[in-house]
């Protein structure tokens, strides 16, 4: 009985020390993690909206399809991308469509005047290794450059406006649907927000 109590005390102390060390490490590295995230965001913004010198964030409320196909209201941070002279060169935002395995995080660049996609970049995904992860490759994402929102955004093997990744049709369709739906919602919310300011 005494031996069991000693083991419990030792394990409790080890757990407390390990927990404290993890908490300290997390807090100590959090500023660096935030700085890396900000740097990655800026890099992604410049990738999807070429010519971006600086950006201004703006939060808009949009209606998007959530898990299970149900509509849900969300707050989306839209970045107004400006050139060196302060002229708007495009908008960028993060879209999160649900793929085969999990949510796919995308940075989407948008030309609001022309109603077209400038570019997309996959930020994070947990799709099937070797198949679903191919939606991050330029061969797939490059198809979105210059795509007009009037286009159907149908990802299929053949005969559609977007060539789906072989073996990753669900992921391909999720990206295509997510880009179109979110772009239309962001444009509508942005126009309403900007119209309310004038």
Radius of gyration: 22 Å
Q: How many β-strand runs?
A: 7
Would you tell me the structural class of the helices and strands? alpha+beta
Please tell me what the overall shape is: globular
| N-to-C series of helices and strands | HEEEEEHEEH
Mean pLDDT across all residues, rounded? 90
Query: Which consecutive residue ranges, at least 5 long each, have pLDDT under 50?
Result: none
**Share of residues in strands:** 25-35%
Q: Main sheet?
A: 5 strands, antiparallel
Total of domains? 1
Helical fraction: 40-55%
CA-CA gap between termini = 77 Å
For the structure shown, list the relevant keywords.
five-stranded antiparallel beta sheet; 198 residues; 3 helices
What would a concise description of this structure say?
The chain is built from 3 helices and 7 strands. It is an alpha+beta fold.
Structure notes:
The protein is α+β, with helices and mostly antiparallel strands and 198 residues long. The protein has one domain (45-197). It contains three helices and seven strands; from the N terminus they run αβββββαββα. It has a five-stranded antiparallel sheet, sandwiched between helices. The protein is globular. The protein starts with a helix and ends with a helix.
Fold blueprint:
Blueprint: H1 2-48, E1 54-65, E2 71-82, E3 88-95, E4 105-111, E5 116-124, H2 138-141, E6 155-156, E7 162-163, H3 169-197
